Amino acid sequence: MQAIGRAARHRVRALSHGSTSSSWPSCQIRSLAVEPGSREKLLLEEDPALKKFKSDKETVKLIKRIGDILVLSVVAGSVYEIYYRMQNRKAVQTLGSLSNGKPS
């Protein structure tokens, strides 16, 4: 603890004793003491020029579904390729042992 600065030790102590003055949930709750100004109100309004850049939930779901199908098809193709190669290897080994005169 000696390497930690005095402020850091105080913060660790405050957090360990359950102080919520600077903890995460209390930082999210924000109350305004005064009415927001005109600039803040303009910034909080919805901008029609940016509307075309927003994603539609249905479109996002469709893209995710297409991605899932592509992933499944690649995995299925890879598994089939491994199975096919193993079958070919087994067939080559069987033919090789038959040509040598040794049954497997």
TrEMBL record:
The name this protein goes by in its record: Uncharacterized protein
Organism: Diphasiastrum complanatum
Source lineage: Eukaryota, Viridiplantae, Streptophyta, Embryophyta, Tracheophyta
